[in-house]
Amino acid sequence: MDSTPRKRKGAPPACSAARSLQDLASRKRFCRESDPHPPRPDGGPRRTTPAAVMTAPAASGASASAVPGRGHKRKVGCIDSATRLGRRKRLETEYELGDEIGHGKFGRVRACRARVPGGGEEEELACKALPKGGGDTAHREVEVMQHLSGHPGVVTLKAVFEDADSFYLVMELCSGGRLLDEVARDGRLSERHAANVVRELMAVLKYCHEMGVVHRDIKPENVLLTKDGRLKLADFGLAVRISDGQKLNGVAGSPAYVAPEILLGSYSQKVDIWAAGVLLHVLLMGTLPFQGNSAEAVFDAIKTVELDFHSGQWASVSLLARDLMSQMLNRDASSRFSADEVLRHPWVLFYTECPLKAEFSHLWSTNKAATPMVHLDRVSLDCESSASESSSGNSEEQDECVVVDALTAAITQVRISEPKRSRLCSPVNKLLPPSRDAILT
Ligand SMILES: Nc1ncnc2c1ncn2[C@@H]1O[C@H](COP(=O)(O)OP(=O)(O)OP(=O)(O)O)[C@@H](O)[C@H]1O
């Protein structure tokens, strides 16, 4: 681990996961995009979203003249014909809407069921209503969801409907709730559970980034779970598509998860890795790493607070987990891990890749460390268990941390991290003009 972090004196006291995350939720309102269609100075009508979902606009924060990059596998800006479109009447004909199951700042989500002619088995779905007048948000969300469709870690969009007031996004139901609720319930997740979450999240983020999409709102509220505990990334309302080497400059996201370079006004995919690092801190510690009583205070903490990974609750966390955390929360975006590098980190591999047992066992036998092999065998068996399993602070978990820490010594013979990318090799990036994503002044 290459950081010697210290928490700044006078930083606000850590609070419980439920409390701090709830605070965050209420502060979030400060950090959404401003109304992109403010009243006209001449008192004329506001520009509103067109009445029909025909084309999605260019991604906010991206240059209109940007050359399509690797992410543009489909027609840019068009609703894909695979997603059915229609009027609200058709929504009611084809689907039965149930109770509200969640809501965010923009949308209200209801349980929904497809009416199947002939009484066949009904598919459980979710229907998110997005009021019109929210600028490009609904278009962008639909377009990005379609662009990413097919990946098992992305909530599948089934159909889009509209009436005079709203768009309705019918999507697969994630009946396992939010990752946030799991953390609030359990306080802290076991390292094994957290590593499985990180692996699934990074797999979908790697895909998003390869497809040229920056999510910009990674947080436990937007990570949903299926009935069988698989992870699904949701809420693409702030996501944007960018080309290789392109930079964004709109301030967007949820304050506690905002990467420092967003505050500096020039950023790209790595902001999602920072946010995932904050999320990992929440999973392992039950608290947000950067706190404050206002959005400004949180931003100040993001820019200046040095985390202390050596004291307090961190003492019970493996060194490998701390190493990964410091790589994900590296303020230098060019050195910060990519999704792929996170996936290849030994902490993630150890808890999620059973075949490594053999490799580590070999290293173990050539190392003088004293932890018995039986622990490796047990950990190996553990990684076959469900990804949704959780525990916190029990003796079994402590034993695993000892094993992981002992492995740190063993694998230093191999490598802990990929070599840092040379800044000289960075692509020449185009800094875009300020966009309407700027939400804070
Ligand atoms: N596919 C789904 N299956 C089950 N629940 C869902 C689904 N999509 C959303 N929800 C629930 O609805 C809530 C709000 O959804 P979502 O985050 O998409 O709305 P939003 O208005 O865009 O939120 P935000 O305020 O974060 O922008 C989620 O936190 C979740 O509890």
From TrEMBL:
* GO MF: ATP binding; protein serine/threonine kinase activity
Which gene is the coding source of this polypeptide chain? Answer: ga21291
Q: Which InterPro entries match?
A: CDPK_Ser/Thr_kinases, Kinase-like_dom_sf, Prot_kinase_dom, Protein_kinase_ATP_BS, Ser/Thr_kinase_AS
Comp. bias (Basic residues)? 1-10
What's the protein called, per UniProt? Protein kinase domain-containing protein
| SMART domains (alphabetical) | S_TKc
Compositional bias segments (type: Low complexity): 46-69
Q: Which UniProt keywords apply?
A: ATP-binding, Kinase, Nucleotide-binding, Repeat, Serine/threonine-protein kinase, Transferase
Region Disordered: start-end pairs: 1-20, 26-73
Please give the CDD domains that the UniProt record associates with this protein: STKc_CAMK
UniProt-listed PANTHER family:
SERINE/THREONINE-PROTEIN KINASE
Claim: Lyase is one of the keywords in the record = no
List positions binding ATP.
128
Q: Where is composition skewed (Basic and acidic residues) in this entry?
A: 31-45
What Gene3D superfamilies does the entry give? Transferase(Phosphotransferase) domain 1
